Amino acid sequence: MSVPAPGLSDLSQEPFGDMPTEPEAFLRWRANLDRHHPYKYELSEGKVSCMMIHVSRAHWRVTANILGELFQKVDRTHFEAGPAEFGVRTGVGVRYPDVIVDRAGAGLETLACEAPVLIVEVLSPSTAGLDFTAKLQEYTAIESVQTYLICAQEEPCAWV
């Protein structure tokens, strides 16, 4: 078994340039990546995880359906719903969940949610273990989070 490079987790691939391991610097670094960059990066406990961002049609459909329902039901004067491109600061890093509902009112220049109330992850075979362990601990430790929802993509099943 190979040992990951410094700063990278065991779920990572090779480093891409200098990857900061401090949350604010990491957010700025990630914001400057090319929009078509083929990887998704997350920061947890000083380690950067690098994953492919290609998802299955089932994953895409579940995410789109959740966002569609939220757009219809969320009071947009108080909340904003959005997809994975926006970060969530955890106590130990920065994650990019599949769907987020954040309190409205943050500045347009912010790089992460200010007060997320709903966080949704759609299970993928490569990240399912993290969704039920590390991400569960990190997301539920955020004071503003009221619900962390994990959804299956192959069957109608969800965990709260």
Short description:
The protein is an alpha+beta fold. It has four helices and nine strands. 24% of the residues lie in helices and 26% in strands.
**Rg, nearest Å:** 15 Å
The number of distinct helices, counting runs of at least 4 residues, comes to 4
Q: Spell out the CATH superfamily of the domain at 57-159.
A: tt1808, chain A
Query: Mean pLDDT, as a whole number?
Result: 86
Order of helices and strands: HEEHEEEEEHHEE
N- to C-terminal separation? 35 Å
Estimated structural class:
alpha+beta
The assigned CATH architecture of the domain at 57-159 is Alpha-Beta Complex
Would you mind describing this structure in some detail?
This protein has 4 helices and 9 strands; from the N terminus they run H-E-E-H-E-E-E-E-E-H-H-E-E. With 160 residues, the chain is α+β, with helices and mostly antiparallel strands. It has a domain of 103 residues: tt1808, chain A. The strands form 2 sheets. A 5-stranded mixed beta sheet has the order 3-6-7-8-9, with helices on both faces. Strands 2-1-5-4 form a 4-stranded antiparallel beta sheet, with helices on both faces. The longest helix has 17 residues. The N terminus is likely disordered.
Key words describing this protein structure:
single chain, 160 residues, alpha+beta, tt1808, chain A, 5-stranded mixed sheet, 4-stranded antiparallel sheet, 24% helix, globular, disordered N terminus
Chain-wise SSE layout:
Layout: H1 23-31, E1 39-44, E2 47-52, H2 57-73, E3 79-83, E4 88-90, E5 93-95, E6 99-103, E7 116-122, H3 128-132, H4 134-140, E8 147-151, E9 158-159
Parallel strand pairs: 7-8
Antiparallel strand pairs: 1-2, 1-5, 3-6, 4-5, 6-7, 8-9
